[in-house]
């Protein structure tokens, strides 16, 4: 797996202007009556990419997958796969397979028969079919369970049967709609890594829908954050987290502090914002906003330092506050700190040592501070 990890790190076809997307949604809209479920959406996905669609319930994730699989037709726009417009191609003729949100296995059929189902329907010769099913059982490590029925399996095993069934026909693209939704946390995490291994071993393109951001961050090369039928940002997990392109994404992914304030100085890459509660924020900006406008500044809790004494330059990016709440989470501790104006700041620190001499306590007066490049300016 080590070497594959290295390949993975070098995988970034979206940064190459000459790379052709494998799947392209071009201005795709889907209306149900007068409700718009997918709204003029354009998106490129590359060959062998592990792509995640992330967004709140009802934002159009399943609808997007269903259109790619051919179960729904776009109201307008085009979906291109490997250079071919998919309009008019029925689902069974698309090199795409979908693992559904509720992966219904056939309860009266054995694991083996469940996996063979699609192949049999396609009229695959018996020998070939047996060989393929054996291969699939091995792939998902269920060889010993071949003759069991689904109700004799654990949730995780059932999930692997569904996966084997959707991979048996060797689709070029596998669409997974909340594939791990039914699993408990531990099994979910294990299976995430199994899925990543499988995807790399088979060299397939995966599009996975999830509303679990940690899952998307773990598995995906890139994530599309969706809201109300539109893609709000498409980027790598790291970019989405560290450089959200708007308030919605900053707030949706991970924990964040957002300060709203007025721009007092702007120019030459640095912006100063004055926030209620006396805090002055200085930060870099690629596009400097006009002086006097109201902007937001987003900063993650782990980028905020908590100290007993004032930092060296306490006139910017620092404020005095009071510890209001302490949440010990094992690996880290989260502090809720109340600033004089009443705003709460969340700051987290890693518990790298098993015990700390003289730890912070409730009601203690502390300083919060952060670096100039610790957060991002929000445009809206
Ligand atoms: N056949 C349909 N007829 C009418 N409305 C539909 C139909 N299918 C989906 N919708 C609506 O379209 C919107 C998007 O649905 P979709 O299933 O794509 O959401 P989702 O992002 O997958 O949500 P979840 O995370 O809950 O699965 C929802 O508001 C849903 O009610
Ligand atoms: Mg859905």
UniProtKB/TrEMBL annotation:
Assigned EC number: 7.6.2.11
Reaction it catalyzes: ATP + H2O + polyamine-[polyamine-binding protein]Side 1 = ADP + phosphate + polyamineSide 2 + [polyamine-binding protein]Side 1
PROSITE patterns: ABC_TRANSPORTER_1, ABC_TRANSPORTER_2
An annotated GO cellular component: ATP-binding cassette (ABC) transporter complex
One Pfam family named in its UniProt record: ABC_tran
InterPro entries listed in its UniProt record: AAA+_ATPase (IPR003593), ABC_SmlMolc_Importer (IPR050093), ABC_transporter-like_ATP-bd (IPR003439), ABC_transporter-like_CS (IPR017871), Mo/tungstate-bd_C_term_dom (IPR008995), P-loop_NTPase (IPR027417), PotA-like (IPR005893), PotA_ATP-bd (IPR017879)
Keyword Transmembrane recorded: no
Keyword terms of this UniProt record: ATP-binding, Cell inner membrane, Cell membrane, Membrane, Nucleotide-binding, Translocase, Transport
Domain of life, source organism: Bacteria
Residues in ABC transporter domain copies: 23-253
Recorded coiled-coil stretches: none
Annotated Gene3D superfamilies: 2.40.50.100, P-loop containing nucleotide triphosphate hydrolases
GO molecular function term, any single one: ATP hydrolysis activity
Similarity section: Belongs to the ABC transporter superfamily. Spermidine/putrescine importer (TC 3.A.1.11.1) family.
Protein function: Part of the ABC transporter complex PotABCD involved in spermidine/putrescine import. Responsible for energy coupling to the transport system.
Subunit structure: The complex is composed of two ATP-binding proteins (PotA), two transmembrane proteins (PotB and PotC) and a solute-binding protein (PotD).
Protein name: Spermidine/putrescine import ATP-binding protein PotA
Gene: potA
């Amino acid at each position: 797996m080590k070497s594959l990890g290295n390949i993975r790190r070098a995988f970034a076809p979206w940064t190459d202007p000459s790379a052709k997307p494998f799947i392209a949604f071009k201005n795709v809209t889907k209306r149900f009556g007068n409700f718009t479920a997918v709204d003029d959406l354009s998106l490129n996905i590359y060959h062998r990419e592990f792509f995640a669609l992330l967004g709140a319930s009802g934002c159009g994730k399943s609808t997007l997958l269903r259109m790619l699989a051919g179960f729904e037709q776009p109201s307008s726009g085009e979906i291109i796969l490997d250079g071919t417009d998919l309009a008019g191609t029925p689902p069974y003729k698309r090199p795409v397979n979908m693992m559904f949100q509720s992966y219904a296995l056939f309860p009266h059929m054995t694991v083996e028969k469940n996996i063979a189902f699609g192949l049999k329907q396609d009229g695959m010769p018996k020998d070939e079919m047996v060989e393929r099913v054996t291969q699939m059982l091995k792939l998902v490590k269920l060889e010993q369970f071949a003759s069991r029925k689904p109700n004799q399996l654990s949730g995780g095993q059932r999930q692997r049967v569904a996966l084997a069934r959707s991979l048996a026909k060797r689709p070029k693209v596998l669409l997974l709609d909340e594939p791990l939704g039914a699993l408990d946390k531990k099994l979910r995490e294990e299976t995430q890594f199994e899925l990543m291994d499988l995807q790399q071993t088979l060299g397939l393109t995966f599009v996975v829908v999830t509303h679990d951001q940690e899952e998307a961050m773990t598995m995906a090369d890139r994530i599309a954050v969706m809201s109300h039928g539109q893609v709000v940002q498409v980027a790598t997990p790291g970019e989405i987290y560290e450089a959200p392109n708007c308030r919605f994404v900053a707030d949706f992914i991970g924990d964040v502090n957002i300060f709203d304030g007025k721009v007092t100085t702007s120019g030459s890459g640095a912006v100063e914002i004055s926030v209620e509660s006396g805090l002055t924020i200085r930060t870099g900006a690629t596009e400097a906003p006009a002086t006097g406008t109201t902007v937001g500044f987003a900063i993650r809790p782990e980028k905020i330092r908590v100290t007993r004494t004032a930092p060296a330059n306490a006139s910017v990016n620092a404020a005095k506050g009071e510890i209001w709440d302490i949440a010990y989470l094992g690996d880290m501790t989260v502090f809720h700190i109340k600033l004089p104006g009443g705003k709460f700041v969340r700051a987290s620190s890693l518990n790298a040592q098993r015990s700390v001499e003289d730890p912070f306590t409730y009601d203690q007066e502390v300083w919060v501070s952060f670096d100039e490049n610790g957060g991002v300016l929000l445009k809206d």
